[in-house]
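Example 4.3 (complexes with small molecules)
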Amino acid sequence: MSDEWFYETHKDALRFGLKIDRVLLDQQSPYQRVQVFETPLFGRVLALDELLMTSERDEYNYHELLVHPALCTAPRVARVLVIGGGDGGTVRELMRYPEVVQVVMVEIDGLVVEASKEFLPSIGTAWDDPRLQLIIGDGIAYVQEADVEPFDVILLDGSDPVGPAEGLFGEAFYRGCERLLAPEGVFAQQSESPELFREIFGDVVRMTRKVFGNAHPYFGPVPLYPSGYWSFTFASRTVDPMAVIDARAERVEQHTRRWDRPLHGAMFVVPKDLRAAIAE
Ligand code: SPD
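Answer. The structure with spermidine bound is encoded below.
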């Protein structure tokens, strides 16, 4: 029996510990340390630079909440861009929609994709879908330089704003996304814990509001992430996040474990103390 533990540390004041049964991978890529563990509580877990990214046991909380609010409200969803998303969970949820014609996914770290394919096959079940165009490259450069048709939905499935993902939380990145987003398109991203990283959360909402015209944070539990209370941000010039397209939602609800229409409305309620954090 192993007595090894993995610790994620924040602000030099908080530690979240996970008992490890087995280390499956521990390798340095050109960008970050990539680790996969077998754990008793969360199953297999992926960590990047000592930060927990996803687990077999609870990943659906995160991936369903990142994908379905945008996909069930955007008028068109034919072309979708994913920045990050190396474990494949976001692409899996996207491919549930027959209306999706092409998903372009730009992930900076090929090792994350390879590790996920090998060790987390239950998360990335759509790698072989012919609608997927996988680009191993820099998402920031892509949104600023790519000469492509506009996207109907852009999803940022990045890690925390340190190391290679830092620039994904900056205005220049959002401007690039706005450049590639169709006029009636939807942008959505994970926006960190509103409890532990309230400043980052507030900055994301304010910046996306400035760049895309409107921004709506929404919330859900992700037990693997620090504080367990996580936020996402939905931004669009024209799309109302409450205007769910029932026919699409009804179909996808056959597959989801967490997201459905009753939850959708509730997720967008902003608690009183957080309203101040996102004010101008
Ligand atoms: N603190 C963890 C934030 C991780 C966000 N991205 C996770 C990637 C899952 N596809």
